[in-house]
Structure formats: structure tokens, C-alpha cells
TrEMBL record:
One of its GO terms (cellular component) is cytoplasm. It is an enzyme of class 2 (transferase). Residues 46-297 form the Sulfotransferase domain. GO terms for molecular function: sulfotransferase activity. This is Sulfotransferase. It is found in: Cytoplasm. Transmembrane segments: none annotated. Its main location: cytoplasm. Belongs to the sulfotransferase 1 family.
Length: 304
């Protein structure tokens, strides 16, 4: 049974919001922690590619870019299946009869492109042992927080977000799923000095998509013509992604992801945080970034 049929076979009455369990200092969905032994023991292969992000930092965007590069810029080949089927989410353990991400991964032929939100210290060790290539996408904290808040509102598996003020407080304290944004972006930033990790900024991808796509292609060992890069830019721009059922999660039923509340692909802009943050909240995050990112060498842009 393929992924889509499994989703359609679900009992809507069985869906409940997952509790978070603190694991190794990181809040994770309870079902992920229950299956941790299998996730940690996942056997990476040398030609695996891993796309890693903090949640809502441009994951789906990068997944579609990478698939377009792999398919030589042919959108028809990228339309073969929904994005979550093409690139399984390794630590996601949804309700039955959907298979856990690690089970989907094990059943896939090589070469595999996989997705994770895990912080650096929780990545299964076989990815390091096999020296797998990793693409990390980082997004500025303010837009990231707003996007994550809206996702919590539509996802029927994520914990209740509460109102914006309550959510932001939890987010800043690292009490949302996958933990602290600060720890996440810095952990992966430091790791790029020792491992084959391409660290991409969401804001750079918005500002110069063609240049950043070329950077990804080079990292993957692909030579792309200017025309193919142009195809990929067009196919993966926000308006195209939002209208693409193989990328916009519209194939997921409303009882799991209620897109009547808000779209999975909502705005995709830089600076949308200004619609949500109070002046005091914005200043608080500015101060935190100065303090917590001080010696990291990381710089984020909250507007273009």
C-alpha cells in the first residue's frame, strides 16, 4: 500500500494532538521518542542526501529544488508523487496505518534524499559514519516563529499552540517541538567545518534564487545550464509551489492538516513577522540574538 492510500485509510477519529516529551534536552513528539531506538539505528548509505532544517525554515522549498536538480529541471518527473513520499521524514512517526519515516527510508532504493528536523546531536550516527552530504537551511528567527505558529494551528498532530504571545514564549524558551532555534542553527553551523554540509540561508534563497540554486547543484556535483537553472527558479518560486499539489500538501486530508484555517504554503516572504510581533517582542528577540549568537559568526536578515 503506498503512502497516499495509507493516509486515506486512516480513521479521522483516531487523530489526536501529540504530546511533547523531553529527550536529550529536546522536546520531541512522543511517538518519535517511543521509536527512538529504530530511528537512532537507521542505516544511512554513502549516497544518501539529507535535507535538514529547523521546522518551517524552507524545508519543502529546498526539497523541491533538490528534486528538480536531480531530475535535470524536468517538472513532470518531480510530479511523480507528493514531496513527503519522494523524500521521507526520518523521525516522523504518524498514526497507523501510515508507516514511520524510518520504515519508508529503509524501503527506498538508492540514491535517497531524506528529510529531518533533528538537532545536530540527535542525528543518527550512521550519517556521519557514511560521510553523507547534508544541506541545512536556516531562516531568521522572527519569520521562522510566525510560520511555525501558523503551522501549529493547522496541524492536527502538533500540540495546541495557544495564542501568539503564549506560543512565542514557548518558542523562545526552546519548548516547542525540535527544541531551541538558537541551539539548532548554531549546532549545524559549527558542524559544517567538519562535515560535508552546505549551509543555506532562506533569505539568500529569496534574494538570489538562481545563485543559490547553482550553489546547491555544485554541492551535489551537478552541472546546470543557465536555462535549466531558470526552469528550476520558475518551478520553485513561491507562487508555483503554492499551486503545485505535489508540493503544497493539499493531498493530506483536512483531519490531519486543516488548510481551511491557513495554507501550508502561506506567504513565503521575508519580513512577514512585522504583521505579528509587537515592538516589545521584536526588541526582545533582537536582544536575544545579539546575546546568544554573539560569538557564532552567524548573521540573519529579518528583511530584504
Amino acid at each position: 500500500m503506498d503512502v497516499q492510500k495509507r493516509i486515506e485509510a486512516m480513521d479521522p477519529a483516531s487523530i489526536k494532538r501529540l504530546k511533547l516529551v523531553e529527550f536529550e534536552g529536546v522536546p520531541l513528539p512522543e511517538t518519535t521518542v517511543e521509536q527512538w531506538e529504530a530511528i537512532w539505528g537507521l542505516k544511512a548509505r554513502p549516497d544518501d542526501l539529507l535535507i535538514c532544517t529547523y521546522p518551517k525554515a524552507g524545508t519543502t522549498w529546498m526539497q523541491e529544488i533538490v528534486d528538480m536538480i536531480h531530475q535535470g529541471g524536468d517538472p513532470q518527473k518531480c510530479a511523480r508523487a507528493p514531496i513527503y513520499e519522494r523524500m521521507p521524514f526520518i523521525e516522523m512517526c504518524p498514526p497507523k496505518p501510515i508507516r514511520a519515516g524510518f520504515e519508508e527510508v529503509e524501503a527506498m532504493p538508492s540514491p535517497r534524499t531524506l528529510k529531518t528536523h533533528l538537532p545536530i546531536h540527535l542525528l543518527p550516527p550512521s550519517f556521519w559514519e557514511q560521510n553523507c552530504k547534508i544541506i541545512y537551511v536556516a531562516r531568521n528567527i522572527k519569520d521562522n516563529a510566525v510560520s511555525y505558529f501558523h503551522f501549529h494551528q493547522i496541524s492536527k498532530l502538533m500540540p495546541e499552540p495557544g495564542n501568539w504571545d503564549e506560543f512565542l514564549e514557548k518558542f523562545v524558551a526552546g519548548k516547542t517541538a525540535w527544541g531551541s532555534w538558537f541551539d539548532h542553527v548554531q549546532g549545524w553551523w559549527k558542524a559544517k567545518n567538519c562535515h560535508p554540509i552546505l549551509y543555506i540561508f532562506y533569505e539568500d534563497l529569496k534574494k538570489d534564487p538562481a545563485g543559490e540554486i547553482q550553489k546547491v547543484a555544485q554541492f551535489l556535483g551537478s552541472e546546470l545550464s543557465g536555462a535549466v537553472v531558470g526552469e528550476i527558479v520558475q518551478h520553485t518560486k513561491f507562487e508555483s509551489m503554492k499551486a503545485n499539489p505535489m508540493a503544497n500538501y493539499s493531498t493530506i486530508p483536512n483531519f490531519l492538516l486543516d488548510q481551511d484555517i491557513s495554507q501550508f504554503m502561506r506567504k513565503g516572504t521575508v519580513g512577514d513577522w512585522k504583521e505579528q510581533f509587537t515592538v516589545a517582542q521584536s526588541e526582545q528577540l533582537d536582544d536575544l540574538c545579539v546575546h546568544l549568537l554573539a560569538d557564532s559568526g552567524l548573521t540573519f536578515h529579518t528583511q530584504l
